[in-house]
Design a protein that fits this description.
Helix content: 25-40%
Radius of gyration: 20 Å
Number of strands: 10
Strand order of the largest sheet: 3-2-1-4-5
Distance between the termini: 19 Å
Number of helices: 9
Oligomer: single chain
Largest sheet: 5 strands, mixed
Structural class: alpha/beta
Bound molecules: zinc ion
Amino acid sequence: MIGAVDIGGTKIAAGIVDEEGRILCRLDSPTEPERGFEHGLSRIAAMLREASRCAGTPISGIGIGCTGPVDPFTGIVGKVDFLPGWEGGNLVDGLRREFPVPVAVENDADAAALGEAAWGSGRGKRHFIYVTISTGIGGGIILDGKLYRGVDGSHPEIGHHVIDSAGPLCFCGAHGCWERLASGPAMAEWFRSQLRPDDPSPAALDARDICDRAVRGDELCLKAVEREAFYLGLGLANLVTLFTPDAIALGGGVMKSAHLFLESARGVIRQNCGLVPFEKTELLLASLGPDTALAGAARAWSHRFGQDKSWS
Ligand SMILES: [Zn+2]
């Protein structure tokens, strides 16, 4: 039984996950990063103890998925915009002081990819990419069943590869990266930019509203959907050309309306992946849903320390 922790900018979740990826007990708490790293750490420890009590089982390991740059080997939190005051804090050492068990930390998108690969739509896929499309775009790459890491264990930021260098500026410093063109907020921003002053459509629609209205036939919303599918498809086409994976699984809020995008996105892949066997790459929807983050955090532990070495 693994104690799993998902650390996001606004919320921390903790739970107990069994060896099949089932979540036995789950607790949530606001992150409150302004109260500092030590405060966050002691809350995580308290949540894990409570989850262990509620599931009626001791914890044999702790897996953590953490937003932003985090060193997977030392457990040190890097510079994360959403976690001011946590930079330099050591999650592994901090939790090892409280629990005498091995602790594994991964970037949250990598953890989600590991969870989806083990227990979700990536099950049995040797080369697998998980992409989440919501307020941002992130993901993890599994090659030969093993999480791909870059230099010094760094996490590749697939959401920030450049699709259109003439596109809008992203906070990362690049212009027109995938996230800036195909995330939910990018869709809403484009929609707003197209409204005429006399247009009756409310300016504050988010991606979900736009999708709902597109289903009802709203012309501008249909254009926003078409544009989203195009940029989603371009980013996916790049992943297919670069990695030719067995499968790519798509998750995140925007993919709740996947039926609006996938056919066109597949068309973009067909058009742009002429040199690789793109038709063999399955385009799937992620299947763990709200369990992804905690299941992924637990899987990050077994990927690092578990008995199943066939995939690691
Ligand atoms: Zn960017």
